[in-house]
Amino acid sequence: xxxxxxxxxxxxxxxxxxxxxxxxxxxxxxxxxxxxxxxxxxxxxxxxxxxxxxxxxxxxxxxxxxxxxxxxxxxxxxxxxxxxxxxxxxxxxxxxxxxxxxxxxxxxxxxxxxxxxxxxxxxxxxxxxxxxxxxxxxxxxxxxxxxxxxxxxxxxxxxxxxxxxxxxxxxxxxxxxxxxxxxxxxxxxxxxxxxxxxxxxxxxxxxxxxxxxxxxxxxxxxxxxxxxxxxxxxxxxxxxxxxxxxxxxxxxxxxxxxxxxxxxxxxxxxxxxxxxxxxxxxxxxxxxxxxxxxxxxxxxxxxxxxxxxxxxxxxxxxxxxxxxxxxxxxxxxxxxxxxxxxxxxxxxxxxxxxxxxxxxxxxxxxxxxxxxxxxxxxxxxxxxxxxxxxxxxxxxxxxxxxxxxxxxxxxxxxxxxxxxxxxxxxxxxxxxxxxxxxxxxxxxxxxxxxxxxxxxxxxxxxxxxxxxxxxxxxxxxxxxxxxxxxxxxxxxxxxxxxxxxxxxxxxxxxxxxxxxxxxxxxxxxxxxxxxxxxxxxxxxxxxxxxxxxxxxxxxxxxxxxxxxxxxxxxxxxxxxxxxxxxxxxxxxxxxxxxxxxxxxxxxxxxxxxxxxxxxxxxxxxxxxxxxxxxxxxxxxxxxxxxxxxxxxxxxxxxxxxxxxxxxxxxxxxxxxxxxxxxxxxxxxxxxxxxxxxxxxxxxxxxxxxxxxxxxxxxxxxxxxxxxxxxxxxxxxxxxxxxxxxxxxxxxxxxxxxxxxxxx
Length: 759
What we know:
Elements (H helix, E strand, L loop, with lengths): L2 H9 L4 H8 L1 H19 L17 H12 L7 E6 L8 H15 L4 E6 H4 L11 E8 L3 H15 L1 E3 L2 E6 L1 H35 L2 H25 L9 H29 L4 H10 L1 H17 L7 H32 L32 H15 L1 H16 L7 E2 L11 H12 L8 E6 L4 H12 L4 E9 L4 E8 L6 H12 L5 E5 L1 H35 L3 H13 L1 H12 L4 H4 L7 E2 L2 H31 L2 H30 L5 H33 L8 H10 L21 H5 L8
Parallel strand pairs: 6-11
Antiparallel strand pairs: 1-3, 1-5, 2-3, 4-5, 7-9, 7-10, 8-9
């Protein structure tokens, strides 16, 4: 039987799905086009339905107190502040006072606005600047976040600007969140305009073909548009953070490129081996397709772990991440094979690298020998792997020590909450908040509120106020403000930062203070304390889910109990540089001027959790690609060291190219003017590059060399379980059979036949 017939026969099987994709490629692409068009319609305006909060625990004490105060005392929880600048005459000038009262009365009459109060109605020193030139009108816009934002949009133009003798600016929590949402949408569009052309250029360099380079972009766009439609549907049932759209774009492009690189590489190898187009596609789906699906599951599991947290900020990333990962994998395993069937050898058309490699060999039937000597690109990775394994103890110790050293700054992490300083210094709501923070005695809206429930006498209220005013770290305590029998609140202003360590300590003391009535505490510091507690309570569950499912999936892939443990530990180690850099740069403020952000001296509590889940999942994505190829070769040859070199040689360039492209996308996201988004993009980009270029190329081969054949050990019952239920990228029987001797470098010639197609 000829080689073509052998390969065709080997690829001629497959399930019903494989037969459908290869037999009806035009129908597959047509259905995909229709579904994508529907997704565009369904996902339109999704950003307008998203929120910009979600850091609080819905079941926390602070959340209960906030909602109760909203209902009973709207004025106690202002979310809109009008900063009235009187200039030289000062806030007590009669004309200024008259205009300020008129503005307050007008604001109080606006539909949807409650609890209007001001310096001119209360005389509170907290609402008057220390220089006497500015005063504050505070109000609350009631309702859900999206409804409140709509009211703000409606009324803001009528109040912002000059009014007689005063100039009015708008601030407050609602204004900050609303402006943050607008900035994120603008930044996301800019990131896409940066990432798409750069990604296309890199893909052309990797594939060598403009036609092939367009395929991953098509898969990514389908995944992104589909995820927007999914998120639009989810907003009908629950809150979704606008930040999640950044993850949708990054993972949609990044994973689509990963999966397309893997699928097209395998397709070209099969064509180079002599298989016809249909057989090559079927074999690719049955082998590389399994690994793509397997990889998608590992990434989805890492992201799904965020569902255990109560904050909708984190849950939103799980919704977006799971959707975009599964859609990217589905598109890669349906649209991409259908396109390959229709394109055939034309997938290698428009080889732009010929402009740089004139005079070298032309392209072959399916990409073998496309201007490179057989195995030239992969041989370098093979030689590097051989060098690392010859000095395995040195590379293992030095690399591990270096990664640990890079992660040491994280030991000094301080957790905080997101505020207006996430925005650029020139943002209008940020300017107002800066003036309030720097010029007023006790940042208005930044104190703590104690809700008192239960009947009490005036003497009991007064005694309680005196006790809490005497607490260490309390600047002053005011109240009570009552609303009939059984309900009142006190305002407590902590010393120092609004959410600093002292303010958080005061929260605990207020909650522990004796009172003749039930008390609950809210305010920025209380929300932070409750958020930290919620994350600490659920973090072991999230980590347990990720670790246990990863161990199971990697065992199903490799049949070893050692490799899964290695994968979890090395993946976690690959994240140390990211966490160290987050603290060194964003908490301590190094490079703040260069990167264009304001350091608040802490890290938003949910960000490390989010970054861990995303970066760990992406690391597993690359790990699965490498391990699947090593396992495939080990099953065929039984030669451990040769298999490790083989895996690095055939995936080192692939993983590095994918990591560089994904890093470009994440850096584009990191150009955002919002600090949290900048931190997410740049941090994950660093983690991806460290994983691909350090962990996969240095640590994995050195550790696998040290563990030797023990790497593949599993107890008898688990081995039999894997033989029955495990998956692999090959249908060949396990054991030696390729004829490659131990450590033979000649396997670069045997299997480098198409590697130059993906450099």
